[in-house]
Amino acid sequence: MLIGIPKILSPEIIATLCEMGHGDVIVLGDANFPGKRFATEGGCKFLRADGISGTALLDAILTVIPCDTYVERPVMLMQKMDRDADLSIPIWDEYQNIVARHDDRGANAIGFYERFKFYEESAKSYCIIQTGEEAIYANVMIQKGVIK
Predict the structure, then answer these.
(1) Domain coordinates of the chain in residue numbers?
(2) Distance from the CA of 142 to the CA of which of 2, 112, 120, 128 falls in 20 to 30 A?
(3) b/e per residue, 76-108, with b = 16+ CB within 10 A?
(4) In this entry, which stretches build a coiled coil (predicted)?
(5) Is 70 a catalytic residue?
(6) Of the residues 24, 30, 68, 103, which is catalytic?
């Protein structure tokens, strides 16, 4: 056990976060996200965090790594498809609040990728973590910053 490390971060997740350099990207896929497929296609690491919500994992990760300050939007979410335009996505507000607690830019640190662009970028990431998050459109990508 370690002091000050959120207990939901498994040894594999902690090791992965330590291995990542600035500019590397980690994806938190919701329970519906085809994470294993994109990790295999892109040759990136794939980890599971079954039973852990996307909000809890995002908060825990941002407790131990900073968002990249060299890019305008280091946190990217999956944009809704046109057919879901009227659908409310309350988890986005939760993600915004979590990011604001850890990054002075708040909501300005968050951007959106169109669904298929999100998939494409996920395959290029350092790691995809499949969470137990059941909310839809709850996929989030974080670009790691420099630890000073």
Answers:
(1) 24-143
(2) 2
(3) bbbbbeeeeeeeebebbebbbebbeebbeeeee
(4) none
(5) no
(6) 68
